[in-house]
Design a protein that fits this description.
Blueprint lengths: L16 E5 L4 H12 L3 E6 L11 E4 L5 H6 L8 E5 L14 H25 L4 E6 L12 H24 L4 E7 L21 H14 L4 E8 L9 E5 L12 H4 L12
Parallel strand pairs: 1-2, 1-4, 2-3, 4-5, 5-6, 6-7
Antiparallel strand pairs: 7-8
The structure holds NADP nicotinamide-adenine-dinucleotide phosphate.
Length: 270
């Protein structure tokens, strides 16, 4: 938080702690720091988690691509707690150029690893859990050479929606927030791509928005889009809207009507 920022709004409810899967860098770290500012005992998971942590976070080593690590990493998070599923990496490549190992590793990182680890965290939790999941606007946007990444992000979003009934059956105060962000100014995530990070969203600002949404959430489930403005003069400003989005048509914009297919969806801002 910068010296001029308003103080973090306290979180309502009984929550004492937060476990951030992928809390060592980028958006996950920003979410973890904002959790700590709100008085939560905050555990951060990642491969590079190491003691001591200068920011007062509690690091726990976890490699989501290593089944043994997913089975054995500590899940000693005091209940009731927030659980944040943030870890990820990007891959932009045509499927035929993607190696078997890349498919396996990205699937573990973005889907099967977190699902198995979440299974352990939820089994251990006593009292209510508020699960905050960072999927992506790539779960519904038309992209090129990103089929594996987009497919896994859509799987994450669908998995979490369908977890809602059983989480509510387990505890009526359980909550789930599904967040689909657009482009974030996290250069490490977009390694090798020449992007204008000045026109992308600040992860610290997005983390504050996410915690404020979580604090205000009264319903069991909320899905939110946090997309960057493309308006000249306010490029990169986060724009928040609620609810799921219909997947964009995979054809070139306008091509669907020309070939007699379904009408293209209205253009939506990222
Ligand atoms: N950046 C964007 O434009 C953007 C847009 C929409 C959605 N998202 C989503 O937001 C999430 C965070 O992205 P970011 O931009 O903050 O990326 P980032 O800075 O690269 O952070 C990725 C996080 O995932 C962790 N991680 C990576 N591999 C891991 C592994 N094998 N095991 C455990 N943890 C692992 C990293 O920790 P270690 O390195 O310590 O393992 C790090 O904490 C991702 O799920 C991404 O898909 C990003």
């Amino acid at each position: 938080m910068s010296p001029s920022s308003p103080p973090a709004r306290p979180l309502p409810g009984p929550f004492r702690s937060a476990a951030v899967i992928g809390g060592t860098h980028g958006l996950g770290r920003a979410l973890a720091l904002a959790a700590r500012e709100r008085g939560l005992r905050t555990v951060v998971y990642g491969r590079s988690a190491a003691l001591p942590d200068a920011d007062g976070l509690l690091p726990r080593s976890l490699d989501l691509c290593d089944p043994q690590s997913v089975r054995t990493a500590p899940v000693d998070v005091p209940s009731p707690c927030y659980v944040l599923w943030v870890a990820g990496a990007f891959l932009k490549k045509p499927l035929v150029e993607t190696t078997e190992d890349e498919v396996e590793q990205l699937t573990r990182l973005l889907f099967s690893g977190p699902v198995l680890f979440l299974r352990r965290l939820l089994a251990e939790a006593e009292g209510p859990v508020h699960l905050i999941t960072i999927a992506s606007s790539s779960s519904w946007k038309r992209r090129e050479r990103e089929s594996l990444y987009c497919g896994l992000k859509a799987a994450q979003a669908t998995f979490v929606r369908n977890l809602v009934p059983e989480l509510l059956a387990a505890h009526p105060e359980n909550r789930i927030t599904l967040v689909n962000p657009g482009g974030l100014a996290v250069p490490d995530f977009h390694t090798g791509l020449a992007l204008d990070f000045g026109a992308m969203m600040d992860p610290g600002e997005v983390a504050e928005i996410i915690w404020n949404i979580a604090a205000d959430q009264r319903r069991a489930f909320t899905e939110v889009q946090i997309l960057r403005s493309r308006e000249p003069g306010s490029e990169g400003t986060p724009e928040v809207s609620y609810g799921a989005r219909v997947p964009q048509t995979p054809e070139e914009p306008g091509a669907a009507t020309a070939t007699g297919g379904t009408a293209p969806l209205p253009i939506q801002h990222h």
